[in-house]
Amino acid sequence: MSRKENSAEKAMVKALNPKDVDTKYMGEEPLFAVQPDSEYRASTLARAFTWYNRFYGRKEGKDLLIQYLEYNDRKTDAKAMAKVSDSEILTTLCWLARMKLRGLVTLGDEESTLANEINRLLKTVTNPETAFKSSFKSAEAVQPEVAVAVKPNIQDILREKASEACGEIEGLFDTFIAAGAKSTHSLRPIDELAKRNVMPQHVPIVATVWKKKLAEFETVLEGKDSQLVEGYGQFTKTQLKNIVKFIDGVLSDLNSYISVKKTARTPRARKPVPVEKIVAKLKYLKEFADATAKLNLVSIHPTKIHGASEAWVYDTAKRKLHHYIADEYSKTFTVKGNTLLGFDTATSEVKTLRKPAEQLKEIMGSKPAARKYFKDIKATSTAPNGRFNENMIIVKAF
């Protein structure tokens, strides 16, 4: 087996050691073990490019490309590459060459792109004019055309604003990571959407990115994927939990922003819809009695939950108590069909009750006492989805 084909040997190339304090948060140079068909390949490459761009520039990129050529027994090309001007260097391709030495299995189009780039750079030394023509189409070869300015339509502009907001939120995430992924921070993703007046229909595009990111970090936290665990090995378990909490907060802000924007619309005046009609389709259980569990519950009317800022709902079939808290932007709940909207997914919780009769009695006390008691219940906490069913008793709402 040739030196060039030995991927195991390539993976053992000594790691770079940038002298920068940010290595504490960015981790060591990536070492690649993902397969070409892995669903995590794209995200792994993205993190790797971010790592190299953070610590190195064109000069270092050229040095790494020279090292790549020497490693592949192309010493003559390596000497020629040393004469290439730094201004000609495309760092992305240099990082790709370095990743190959660190174990990355490249795809066909990546391999051909890298080979073409190396040939182009070598031509800038042997024949600069030819290299220039290979990078840009010769003016003589292009038929003269009249330039027509294409004015972007309003949808293109709005989508661009959503894309900019997505980039800024990614920047906030980078700031959060660089600060040590602490449990508390003052970053507000929703402000980036508000600054650009992003339309509600474009927010799901941003949300899709963060849902994938959330799924990836939850997988890391569970420790079920060894490759991902290794890739995020620079983070402690506490930091990973804080990262998941941050992403949950981003998704909560995105949902809140949609609610705020829809509420803020000022269409033509319409006749107010009676609250009774708004909550007419909400499924709930009016009364529940269980002699064995010593339970005798009577639900409050759904009209009281519409417009409230906090509510307690008990699922009699699953013994689960739902605690809903309105988010800071909507301020109050809204009922739509059979779903409760406007609650904060980060602070609202669902817990299973072991002794419903005793525990519900405590919840019926004052608001602060109920909150404290619920928080102290030792049970797994999950986020509610706002959906109601015919087994749910609306215990309290205010």
Describe the 3D structure.
- The protein is of the alpha+beta class and 398 residues long.
- The protein has 3 domains: 7-140, no CATH class; 154-264; 275-397, no CATH class.
- The protein is 48% helix and 9% strand.
- The chain is built from 16 helices and 8 strands.
- The protein has helices at residues 7-10, 23-26, 41-55, 58-71, 75-81, 91-101, 108-126, 128-135, 154-178, 189-195, 203-222, 226-231, 237-264, 275-278, 356-363, 367-376; strands at 287-290, 295-298, 310-315, 320-325, 334-336, 339-341, 349-352, 392-397.
- The strands form 3 sheets. Strands 7-4-3-8 form a 4-stranded antiparallel beta sheet, with no helix packed on it. It has a two-stranded antiparallel ribbon with strand order 1-2. Strands 5-6 form a two-stranded antiparallel sheet.
- β1 (287-290) and β2 form a beta hairpin.
- α10 runs parallel beside α13 (237-264).
- It is elongated and about 90 Å long.
